[in-house]
Amino acid sequence: MMLRRIGLVAWHVFKESVRDRVLYAIGAFAMLLVTAAVVFSQLTAGQDLKIMKDFGLATIELAGVLMAVFIGVGLVAREIERRSIFSLLAKPLPRWEFVVGKYLGLVLTLTVNVLAMSLALYAALAYQHWVAPLGVRASWPAPASDPRLMIAVLMIALELALLTAVALFFSTFSSSTLISVVFTVGIFIAGLLSADLRAFNDVVDAPVLGYLVVGVGWLVPAFSAFDVKNQVVYGLPLAPGFVLHTIAYTVAYAAAAVGAAVIALRSREFK
Amino acid sequence: MATAVVTEGLTKDFRAGFWRSRPHRALDGLSLEIPTGGVFGLLGPNGAGKSTTLKILINLLWPSAGRAQVLGRPPGDVDARRRLGFLPEHPTFYDHLTAEELLTYFAGLFGYSPADRRARASRFLDLVGIGADRRRLLRHYSKGMVQRVGIAQALINDPELVILDEPMSGLDPIGRRDVRDLILKLRDEGRTVLFSSHILSDAELLCSRVAILAKGRLVASGALSDLTAAQPGSGDGWEVVAINVPPEVADRLTARVRRATCIAPGRYTFELAPEVRPETLVTDLASAGASVVSLTPVRTTLEDVFMERITR
Amino acid sequence: MTGAKPTAFGILAVVGGLALSASLLYARDHRYPPPPVTQRMLYVTSGSVVGRVMLTFDALAADVYWIRTIQHYGRDRKSRLQSGRFELLEPLLDLTTSLDPMFMTAYRFGAIFLSMAPPEGPGKPEAAVALLEKGLRATPDRWQYAHDIGFVHYWQTGDFTKAADWFERAARMPKAPSWIGPLAATTRAQGGNRVGARQMLQELLTSPEAYIRQAAERGLLQLQALDAIDFLQAAVDEYFRRHGQYPANWSDLVRAGLIPALPLDPSRVPFVYDATTHHVKLGPGSPLAPLPQGFQR
Hints:
The complex is a heterotrimer. Chain A has 14 helices and no strands. Chain A is mainly α. Chain C is flat, with a radius of gyration of 26 Å. Mean pLDDT of chain C is 82; it is low at 36-41. Chain C has a two-stranded antiparallel sheet. Chains in contact: A-B, A-C, B-C. The interface between A and C is medium-sized, with 36 and 34 residues.
């Protein structure tokens, strides 16, 4: 029963995103950039496959990040602002189910979008493969339509799931969209640098400040940990244990962030 | 269970701004009992604390002091929520959904089967008169239509207790009449209806019991008939307006009536107590050569009760 | 039931989730460390490409690359890598200075650390000189760049003629300090000497970059060690003059009253006296090794 209610809330988040034209703009933007990658790579001989893979993955990631942040910070905040949450909370729907449903709905939306963009990328790569002469094909470190690219896509999806959780958390207690966006983006950047933060003590000898920085490096969601683009593009091996650990990490941290969001919503009154 | 809602000393303070230390008391020691069945009106001017009370009952706000019970349970209890319906003030829903989709969504939250959800959506949309437009997006609905959808979603689970916050707001006269008829229908079906309004005349037509709030305090509560009957000063009775009344006849009649007012030379208004039959007066006036312009029964209105209690 | 207080379960979920995720990350990075090859790839090595991509944020990009330069240097310095140490230093410095051609500290950093011999640095004095020449093309009046090229030749390549040429060029630039002219003259006349070396190192002590200051301090200590070795060698020779044979160990010298106690170098590692060759050297494991060559008094 609880799953059904959560599923309903999640499905409606997905439905709203499908009917929301803003999403199409981001999707179109992504498609455009992938096309640009095709054109761009014609200009740089030899490296074109690598550039296309890199550029394509980076575009998918960037579009996903934009969606996760901008839709994520509005997930709960918009319902509160529009007061549509009043009639919802009068129904037998516990607040925690509402929060979890909203989260899963956006994750579903992002997953579908990322998969759609990946398909476009694969199509573009297949085209590259088709037009390339045999000699050039032999020199590629990894095949054009490399199925291992999906591992990079999986990592991107995990990264977005984590970012969504952070955005959702801000959505539940901040009523200002601007503040939520700023904080979410700030944490995202800190997370991208978290590997450097954790290695701070290796590079700089500062006693108190060092431990503080390293501590922040461990606390902040490690968005840098999802970057396997290099390995995948160069066809280097990636252990399954690595991927499993990363999935477990994402689940654990996202659970913490969603948990914090639930706590925040449960302590809110609605004037 | 005889009581649908009970509150004891319900108090709500809001912090007025970040810097001001003194909180704004929106509700002060409200103690109410709302029996099952019948229509209960929570009345008062804007800012009296009506919405605050209803929101506390729905657990959207928490009381600063005091307690409340809804259907025998604390506010927000999931079982209680299954058996009640709520329409918020100035409702907004989801622009990207149709009315039908909204209702099936909410019905789904109660756990009804997909077929049951659709059936309920249809039934209640028809009931509130949205049947024809059910597949249009809520984005395109007028305010009145949204209000109707709001009522429909409040009824989707066949609730024992229906809580409506300003259900008539934003409706045209036809809409208001429809809502009034609907509320009476709900009463006839045995449900308890609790609604808030600042329009006292609506309450008079619908409620069996009322509570009047002003500035967060309860100023009157009880059965409607009791309240209006207990009003000292004015009361039920008759009002006779006559012209061409000779002054000496007016003086003679003044002793027999509760009050006589001279509006213009020869034109008088006579107020009679309800026990006094007006026919005698009319005959007397006629035989004195006066003409009766109008004969109107007078009833104490809720507004009279309200104004009197407020100024007390 | 909603209440104002968070439930125990909620708090457990948040704290537990954070702790669990941190330990999972730690475990992952330990069990599956990223292959060193991928860690050290610089996707773009052309400063002009990066500059165009960064639009108007060139200076910011330069800062980012500068931070990466320092991190790279610091990490490799502490690591026990045998091969490929500091291999990204040259491209990173090149990128930094292409994005911000006026970034003086980057050029001077390159002067010192690019030219250092392994294991302290990549041992590329010619790359250091090229970097500094690039700096002179951007700002032809910077006496520090000309001085630093001389410095590289003075300390690393041992080409004192070129060093003297560059010192002279530096002396002619505006705002050059007064000691550079005489430094050029003495370098041309005598080659490397410690007075000139001390002057250069003192100047480097004023750098805002901590690593440069550390290198300058170390250089000064090395010069002190050279002075000490001269003194100790003179004592050995004096002992021979007095007793007709060389001392067997430090104790002989102490007993002869020629040195006060067992000698320690400025890093407190004892000097070594080789009884067979009668030469004084730095002790093994002294952090001041290898001492710079070619510095007569």
